[in-house]
Amino acid sequence: MPFSKDNPETNKFLQSPELLLDRVFNCLDEAVLVVSTDRRLLFINPAATKIFGYTEEEVSANSTEILHVNHDHYLEFGSRIQDAFQKGRVARFEFKAKRKSGEIFPTEHTVSLLQTAEGDKLGIISFVRDITERKQLEEERSRSAQLAALGTVAAGVAHEINNPIQGIMNYATLLERSPERSDRNLEIARRIKDESKNIAEITQDLLFYSKDTRIEKKLVDIQKTIKGALSLIATKVKNQDITLTVDIKDDIPPLLVQPQSIQQIVINLIDNSNDALKDKAGLSEKKISIGASLHKEHEHPFLLLEVYDNGVGMTEEIAKKALEAFFTTKPPAEGTGLGLSIVNDIVKRHDGSIDIDSKEGAYTKINILIPAISADATSQEND
């Protein structure tokens, strides 16, 4: 709706664009930062003082570095916006920031270049949103789905535990009947140890997956982490007569990730593939393959996780919506629509990306890229 020029208040704004701009900036819930070409703060609105905890006088002419976690974050932020500007785009991304109190918190940035009509650069304007609440909700949703996923693997775990227990009971009975310390008894004892170890590993995988360490990242063996997740869902796959191919490269070093989250990615994707194959009639050979390898993207190392199935596939329209929360093509009793959404949330928390390649009636292939932060990188960061 256009302004009515008969309104005296409107005329006052039209005659003073500076006043209009001031009112607009002051009423925004988002922080507005006007920054010079050498990255010094020229103006912040009231929302910025509330979000970051600084007064306008405290930040005036100061470097924007005071709002960043550390110097490396400050440099990375500058690199991201420059990349966007060079491509002629507005920079939009999530990034951690620091309040005056020292608290680190998640933010969402929209950064535009300020320039004259002739194209001369004047600086940048950044709109910053505090997304702490949103992230907390995403983590709680992720945790809820993680607990729900335990139901999916519970039947498989029970089955895997049952067989070793039966073996232990049978071998123990044989030992009781034969008290002599013969070679036979020693062999039976060895088998008991093997079966017990099998139980311990399965139980450990379940405990590891269900442990609440959503925030902690640590250096983990990717091969062991993925195989641990596969052990929890292997029975469900096997019961559907699906051929599961695993290809995890040996040259992947320990990487800094949330191990339970990586396991949840694997379980959710394999579970989705399992359902896709179950829904495809007349298929002579059901296949799921999972691979993990190191991958270079713009000269930076990434962990590439690939999951493929020859199930029902997706239409282009469904593939576009597949990462949305609560979107599902399953009946209400069979799915929540959170599987791929949770995977997407986890990937974002690791600063990664996810790509879906699917053809209806033929296949689905999901590629996930996660920055490969190794022990060498973390030691350099600490130095």
CATH fold annotation of the largest domain = Heat Shock Protein 90
What is the succession of H and E elements?
Answer: HHEEHHHEEEHHEHEEHEEHHEEH
- Into which percent range does the helicity of residues fall? 40-55%
CATH superfamily of the largest domain: Histidine kinase-like ATPase, C-terminal domain
End-to-end span in angstroms? Answer: 57 Å
CATH architecture of the largest domain: 2-Layer Sandwich
Domain module count: 2
Largest sheet: 5 strands, antiparallel
Number of helices: 12
- Strand elements, count: 12
What class, by secondary structure content?
Answer: alpha+beta
Question: Going across the major beta sheet, what is the strand order?
Answer: 2-1-5-4-3
What is the residue-averaged pLDDT? 81
In CATH, what is the class of the largest domain?
Alpha Beta
Description:
The protein has 2 domains: 16-130, Beta-Lactamase; 135-382, Heat Shock Protein 90 (2-Layer Sandwich). It contains 12 helices and 12 strands. It has helices at residues 8-15, 17-27, 46-52, 56-59, 71-86, 132-177, 183-210, 222-239, 259-278, 316-321, 339-349, 375-382; strands at 31-35, 41-44, 91-98, 104-115, 121-130, 218-220, 242-248, 255-257, 286-297, 300-309, 353-359, 363-371. Strand 3 (91-98) and strand 4 (104-115) form a beta hairpin. Helix 9 runs antiparallel to helix 11 (339-349). The longest helix is centred in the middle third of the chain and has 46 residues, at 132-177. It is elongated and about 95 Å long. It starts with 7 loop residues before the first helix and ends with a helix.
